[in-house]
Structures are given as structure tokens and as C-alpha cells.
Design brief:
Helices cover 26% and strands 28% of the residues. The chain is α/β, with parallel strands linked by helices and 150 residues long. The two termini are 16 Å apart. It comes from Grylomicrobium aquisgranensis.
Length: 150
């Protein structure tokens, strides 16, 4: 497993990091976002959406669980926070093979959706606008993406 740590010091820098992730990403990639409430998961996802040319306002899908955005490739934004203890097939795995990017917040609640190859991004709130992003990757394509982020 390869690892990289990047710190950002403003919302704009977090958006820029998301743009860089999107620009280096390949269709079918899955990003798992881990961090406390308010850590910056949705802010990073907004940057990823910007990098895909998505013009719609990206918000946390907490109440919808899944939101789909269309840009240079589809972005599937899943918030699994409310799925803790749910053991039924909700059909989300179909999106993982659909040629878009999938972002899963609170992935520990849906381990069945996590493919063998993926990127886990752990986000820590350092100060009001500062964040630490620690990237862990599984799989060769994700290792290449990590190299592009350095």
C-alpha cells in the first residue's frame, strides 16, 4: 500500500486538490473519504466535480444517500452514513462498473461496495480552514494517480 499526505489551508486549496484528483482519475475509479463530520469530505468532492466540468452545486447526499452528477464522466457521490447496519442490496454496486468516478463517504458502513483496488482518503481537520489529506492506495492505477498528485 502506497501513501501520500497533503495539507491544504483554505477551501480553495481543498477544491484545487479535488480538481487535481479528477484530472488524474480514470473511469471506474473509487475514492473512499474518511473523516469526522465537518472534516471536508464534501468540499473535496466539490473540487472533484469541478475537475470533471460539473456545473451543478454539489452537496452532501446525506438524505438522498446517492447523487449523480454529469460532466466529462459521471460522478456518483454516495454518503453511507445512514446505512450503518443495513444489510440489503441497494444496487449501488452497479454504479461502480459504469465508467464514472465513485466517491463514497463513510465507506465503513458499506464494506461490500469497496472493490479490491481503490483509494482511501483520510481527512483530518487541523484548524478552521486547514486539513490534512492522507491517501492510501490499493492497485497499480491508483499508485499512478498518487504519483501525479505529488
Amino acid at each position: 500500500m502506497k501513501e501520500l499526505t497533503i495539507e491544504t489551508y483554505s477551501r480553495d486549496e481543498t477544491h484545487d486538490l479535488g480538481r487535481r484528483i479528477a484530472q488524474a482519475a480514470k473511469p471506474g475509479m473509487v475514492f473512499l473519504l474518511d473523516g469526522d463530520l465537518g472534516a471536508g469530505k464534501t468540499t473535496l468532492t466539490q473540487g472533484i466535480a469541478m475537475g470533471l466540468g460539473i456545473k451543478r452545486n454539489v452537496t452532501s447526499p446525506t438524505f438522498n444517500i446517492l447523487k449523480i452528477y454529469h460532466g466529462t464522466m459521471p460522478l456518483y457521490h454516495i454518503d453511507a452514513y445512514r446505512l450503518e447496519g443495513v444489510h440489503q442490496d441497494l444496487g449501488f454496486d452497479e454504479f461502480l462498473d459504469d465508467g464514472g468516478l465513485t466517491v463514497i463517504e463513510w465507506s465503513e458502513y458499506v464494506p461490500q461496495l469497496v472493490p479490491p483496488c481503490h483509494m482511501t482518503i483520510t481527512i483530518e481537520l487541523l484548524e478552521e480552514n486547514s486539513r490534512r489529506f492522507t491517501f492510501h492506495v490499493e492497485g497499480e492505477e491508483y499508485e499512478k494517480l498518487l504519483e501525479e498528485l505529488k
